[in-house]
Specification:
Elements lengths: L2 H5 L10 E7 L7 H12 L8 E8 L4 E9 L2 E2 L4 E6 L6 E9 H5 L1 H10 L4 H4 L2 H16 L9 E9 L2 E9 L3 E8 L4 E9 L5 E8 L16 E9 L1 E3 L14 E2 L11 H5 L5 H12 L4 E3 L13 E5 L3 H4 L9 E11 L3 E10 L6 H5 L11 H7 L1 H19 L12 E5 L10 E4 L2 E4 L13 H17 L13 H19 L24 H41 L8 H14 L10 H9 L13 E6 L2 E2 L18 E9 L10 E6 L9 E3 L7 E5 L6 E11 L9 E10 L8 E9 L1 H8 L1
Parallel strand pairs: 16-19, 19-21
Antiparallel strand pairs: 1-6, 2-3, 3-4, 3-5, 5-6, 7-8, 8-9, 9-10, 11-12, 13-15, 14-18, 16-18, 17-18, 20-21, 22-23, 22-24, 24-28, 25-27, 25-29, 26-28, 29-30
Helix pairs in contact: 12-13, 12-14, 13-14, 14-15, 15-16, 15-17
Bound molecules: zinc ion.
The site of zinc ion has 4 residues, from helix 13 and helix 14.
């Protein structure tokens, strides 16, 4: 979008007694006198440049910015400004906006007289005598407050408001802030108000939760729940009523105005640019104006605290009519995209969960594993809310204790939204824009809201976003973002180790992060992520094996520092990520000696088919069909499955050892048709003998293997009535228990189309 089109998007609203004007490109010269002349002509009031104070003058990348404020006797007039943007080279006007106060200008002489009569001067305004007399007034006001009458700090500003010279005093009390407005001309208190600090205090409750998860995904084995503490619950929360987002809930944000980079900057604000982040900030500001209420058993306690707030998905009320408690709107929101005149986003508030009326009632919330995962009975029981609150808080507590203490970034809650009823979202948990989201579940799969490692993986993405910044871009080799998945797994693993004190539990050995995959030996980011996560987990397990819990803390400290040092990196690669790990190791910290982990990091990388050397030749797994090589973007990849009604291919696989001798011979190639994630929809020819096993004797031994499918489906898993599935090609070294390289070859069969094309 260019600057001129942006200009067309601005419009201003005029309150009473105010003169407002916008002057666009080239209309006038960018001088205060010239602009005020226009204001004087149009308003009939004489505005003089000597009545204005210069507040800011600075060069921006694209313009020079100058700002003045209207004043009287050196005291600024509330709510006024003249802001000018001019061309850096030609000094031509780009934009000017004037917000002036007509009343105080009309009464200017009158005000000066009153000011003089009261024997004020800019020096007098700063005098001790005045300050003392004001302090006396302030003390009297604060002393009358029934719960917070102690003064811990005070600051003030003087300004003209509605023809009166006022001092705006802000007093910090023990539990909140007093705002006191005093007329200096009348020596009188005009207005007082008091606002309690939010989250100044919190409390804990006891509850039954799963320390790890309800069931092991691979085996279905059930684990026990335990009595734990729900910590950091807020004693006071904002009361949003029926329309908690106010006008922001009705605002449509247009896709054309979306800019992650500029939203929230002064320029972006000027031109109405927005991002998820800037909307979230605006809503948070709005919510802070709402009245507070106590979060206690009398009203029913909501799970809102320092690190987590629990909400039900916005569509829950419509989708599930048998909820047995009143479903009220929550002050927390999700951003929804809709197509109206174009693509627009709207902030939609979630719903409050089931409130807690007593400690006893909370203890009676015990998890029941419904055989069909019935959503309504889960919502009514209120257990999943408790589990998610616990899971999020546990992660934050672990990370904060190991060095995640960054101001603001480590202090804000994540907002959880439970039970997204969208059928296409089943069996899912995902992170987006400071929210962690849960769906509904098919009978045979685990309830992910009761699965802490899944919660911690999703929040791993969230911690990355906070520490590595929203402007971070990945450029892992092939551009398929394995680092993001690997890092999320690694953060989850750190928390698992911290929460369990390193003790094992059923299913731990099957975690994706425990693998032998090498770098550059996969063709999609889920699998490439295993190399990242696996390499970092190798480092961590070595550290823990000789340093125990202290090592866990130190290596977490190193990882968090590397995340900070890659903040907003424009194209982060595997190499640059690990370089930053080495650099933060070199820097050392209060818990790590400089260079302490250098060897360990380098050794772990070497054993994963990785090197920093430019001439390094990695081991390779090349898969070809016809003239096409299977990559993360070729035909036959996840995003571009083969769809013809032939469904018979001859794959050629070539393996090389590379400089690190990562693949050794004889190597085994297994073709897995059934046990991979989301496998099973296609009827593969020969799948009864799954997996099919082949041996490759040397680099020159090119393996030829057929991959064929019936033109019908075991089940339909695509909206167009077809089935999509993959053959999982996995390479093992002799004696290795897990694959060291793997690629996925995707087909999509549409039985209807294929049967008609045959006839
Ligand atoms: Zn993920």
């Amino acid at each position: 979008m260019n600057f001129i089109t942006l200009l067309g998007l601005i419009f201003l609203i005029s309150p009473a007694f105010a003169y407002e004007a916008r002057i666009t490109k080239g209309q006038l010269s960018p001088e205060l006198e010239v602009l005020l002349e226009k204001a004087s002509t149009e308003s009939g009031i004489d505005f003089k440049s000597s009545d204005f104070l210069l507040i800011e003058e600075r060069n921006l990348a694209t313009s020079k910015f100058t700002m003045f404020v209207q004043s009287n006797s050196m005291v600024p007039v509330n709510g006024t400004a003249v802001r000018i943007w001019s061309d850096l080279k030609t000094n031509e006007l780009i934009l000017a906006e004037m917000h002036l106060d007509e009343k105080s200008q009309v009464q200017k002489n009158h005000l000066i007289n009153r000011y003089m009569e009261a024997k004020f001067s800019s020096k007098a305004l700063k005098s001790k005598q005045l300050s003392d007399s004001i302090s006396d007034l302030v003390k009297k006001v604060v002393a009358r407050h029934d719960t917070d009458s102690k003064i811990l700090g005070m600051k003030f500003k003087d300004e003209w408001q509605k023809g009166d010279l006022v001092r705006v005093v802000e007093v910090r009390g023990r539990r909140g802030v007093h705002h006191i407005l005093i007329s200096l001309l009348k020596n009188k208190v005009l207005k007082t108000s008091y606002r309690e600090f939010l989250q100044s205090e919190n409390f804990s409750l006891k509850a039954n939760v799963f320390p790890i998860y309800e069931e092991v995904e691979s085996s279905g084995e059930r684990l026990n729940y335990e009595l734990k503490e729900l910590k950091y619950l807020d004693t006071h929360i904002y009361d949003g009523g029926e329309n908690p987002l106010g006008p922001l809930g009705n605002t449509e944000f247009q896709e054309t105005q979306y800019s992650v980079l500029l939203a929230g900057t002064p320029l972006g604000e000027e031109f109405g640019l927005w991002s998820e982040f800037s909307i979230r900030q605006k809503i948070e500001e709005y919510v802070k104006q709402l009245p507070l209420r106590t979060n206690a058993f009398e009203n029913g306690v909501l799970l809102q605290g320092k690190y987590a707030t629990i909400n039900l998905h916005p569509d829950v009320k419509e989708a599930f009519k048998e909820i047995d408690f009143e479903v009220k709107p929550s002050i927390h929101h999700l951003l929804k995209w809709e197509f109206t005149s174009g693509y627009n986003a709207k902030a939609v508030s979630g719903h409050q969960g089931r409130v807690i009326f007593s400690q006893e009632e909370l203890l009676n919330r015990v998890p029941f594993r419904h055989p069909e995962h019935d959503t309504v009975s889960y919502i009514n029981s209120g257990f999943d809310e408790v589990q998610v609150y616990y899971g999020v808080t546990a992660l934050m507590e672990s990370l904060v204790s190991m060095g995640f203490t960054d101001p603001e970034l480590s202090e804000k809650p994540f907002h959880a939204f439970l039970f997204d009823p969208d059928i296409s979202m089943k069996d899912n948990a995902y992170y987006f824009d400071n929210t962690i989201n849960f769906t509904t579940y098919n009978p045979g799969t685990p309830n992910l809201a009761r699965d802490n490692p899944t919660i911690w993986h999703e929040l791993g993405h969230a911690i990355m976003e906070r520490l590595m910044g929203v402007h971070l871009n990945f450029d892992s080799q092939g551009g398929y973002g394995g680092l993001s998945e690997g890092m999320a797994d690694f953060i989850a693993q750190i928390v698992v180790e911290h929460q369990t004190g390193g003790k094992s539990f059923p299913g731990k050995a099957n975690f994706r992060i425990i693998n032998d995959i090498g770098f550059d030996l996969t063709n999609e980011f889920h699998d490439e992520g295993e190399a990242y996560g696996g390499a970092m987990n190798d480092m961590l397990s070595t550290v823990i094996s000789y340093q125990g819990e202290e090592g866990l803390s130190a290596f977490t400290d190193l990882t968090l520092e590397a995340m900070r040092l890659t903040r907003n990196h424009p194209r982060l690669t595997a190499a640059s990520w690990f370089e930053h790990m080495l650099y933060s190791d070199e820097l050392g910290s209060s818990v790590r000696a400089p260079g302490q982990y250098k060897d360990l990091i380098e050794t772990a990388l070497k054993s994963r088919n990785f090197s920093f050397a430019k001439d390094f030749r990695p081991a390779q797994m090349q898969v070809k069909f016809g003239e096409t090589e299977l990559t993360n973007q070729s035909k036959g990849s996840r995003g571009d499955p083969l769809t013809d009604c032939h469904a018979s291919y001859e794959l050629k696989i070539l393996l090389t050892s590379g400089d690190a001798h990562f693949i050794t011979f004889p190597a085994t190639v297994k073709v897995e048709y059934q046990k991979g994630a989301l496998q099973g929809a296609i009827k593969w020819i020969g799948e009864e003998t799954n997996p099919q096993i082949y041996t490759v004797k040397s680099e020159s031994d090119i393996l030829t293997l057929p991959v064929q499918a019936e033109l019908e489906c075991d089940f339909i898993n695509q909206p167009d009535g077809s089935c999509s599935d993959y053959a999982y090609l996995q390479v093992y070294n002799e004696g290795s228990r897990k694959p060291i390289a793997k690629k996925r070859f995707y087909l999509k069969i549409n039985p209807k189309l294929c049967s008609t094309s045959k006839k």
